[in-house]
Amino acid sequence: MAELVFTEYVRCLASGREPSTELHERFWKSFRGALVAEMKRRSLWHLPASRLGFVGASWSTSEEVLEE
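The structure corresponding to this sequence follows.
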């Protein structure tokens, strides 16, 4: 459940604690999944990444673009 990971991550940050490596990795995996799903829902996934300033890159073929 991505929502619980997001909530846990934000609560950890709000309390001033550093998230564990495991929580950090779960958060970014869930966040990336949510971002990709939203981009696909809005029909943005197939547009060139240059629309958001990533020149010459494609969302679906470059992990580096999503990492940015």
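The chain has a mean pLDDT of 83.
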